[in-house]
Amino acid sequence: MAGLLAACFIFSSQSQAGGVALGATRIVYPSDSKQVSLPVTNSDGQNFFLINSWIEDEKGTKSTHFVITPPLFVIKSGKENTLRIIHSGPALPQDRETLYWLNVKAIPAVDKDKKNGNTLQLAITSRIKLFYRPGGLAQGADSAVDSITLNRQGNELIFKNPTPYYISLVNLRAGTRMLPNTTLAPLQSTSLTLPAGAGNEIGYRNINDYGSVSAEKTLTL
What we know:
By secondary structure, the protein is mainly beta. It has no helices and 19 strands.
């Protein structure tokens, strides 16, 4: 039977889906900005895409705290468009960052010549972090990772983040055993379960505002 098969894939913290690419892997929204912009490009040589964008809060619930324009548009092959993100309220904490997620779904156009056949349409969603950053925070974001501390309690590794910034850690390891990537919330502690055979040397890298990964930092328990 002829028909259209649809599938949806979500790529968290990636900036490219099919032929559609985002201009950043994360967004910082300064509290004194009226808006921030994000380029969206279509490098596919043939296909058009319908782009649908929305914001979710830290827990993954759709949020009305930001407005995206345009929320829905068609991007042609080889073209670029710009998403504009505007904070529309309510007031957010001024002593720390607030985390949101920007979702951009790329839905390929259906070829009319193939509409009556069996086709597979892949709708791919790119999901990147959006940090709402108040002005006048105590220290710079670049040095925040140097302030974290950690200790071990049984088989739990406890990270303490005393800064007002979210800190994204990747390539985490305990000795030679790998740990999952994690994001440390501001002014909070985060625990990870250590696998059997975990060593006492903890290694990690962090991702900065521009999506660059730092050199490895190490701490010994």
